[in-house]
Amino acid sequence: MCTGKCARCVGLSLISLSLICILSNTLLLVPNGKTTWTNVDNLSLQVWLMAGFIGGGLMVLCPGIAAVRAGGKGCCGAGCCGNRCRMLRSVFCSALGVLGAIYCLSVSGAGLRIGPKCSMDGKKWDYPFQDTSGSYLLNRTQWSLCKEPPNVVTWNVTLFSLLVAASSLELLLCGMQVVNATIGVFCGDCRKKEGAPR
């Protein structure tokens, strides 16, 4: 596959994954789809770190767009430089994307391991699963410890799991694009030859 076509496929995938991360992080801010509990005291630190919005979202959206542009026509119109300039930009953007994906993966993994912040007695808000080292994930009977917000454990586990999966894919794709774009910088885009007039 040409470096340009590969960059375009990777870029479109990264854009989709970054939007999933942004949406997931936004939903984490409104447990059960309600803003009743959206304040500093009622949401976990991992939610407020905005890893899905910043790391898996914006920091991966930029390399996604750069990769799509690197897969387009060259900077001189018809691709006279074989897209080397755009590929070089994509290398640096994808490296930034790797950092964003690692940030999102780390924070989301911690969010899964520690569990949500919730109220067990209707008054005090705390992390009831913090000392379980993630074992609460396999024991659904413990989830009923959280009284408010309702179903917060299911909400957090689902969305943080989605963030972990998406950021893992982003990490893989950004790494692939670093390699692909580096090859594109040195070898150019083979589509230049395919589209060149005879």
Automatic annotation (TrEMBL):
GO cellular component term of the entry, any: membrane
Subcellular location: Membrane
Annotated keywords: Membrane, Transmembrane, Transmembrane helix
Record membrane topology: Multi-pass membrane protein
Main location: membrane
Homology family: Belongs to the L6 tetraspanin family.
Protein name: Transmembrane 4 L six family member 5
Organism expressing this protein natively: Phyllostomus discolor
Phylogenetic lineage: Eukaryota, Metazoa, Chordata, Craniata, Vertebrata
Gene: TM4SF5
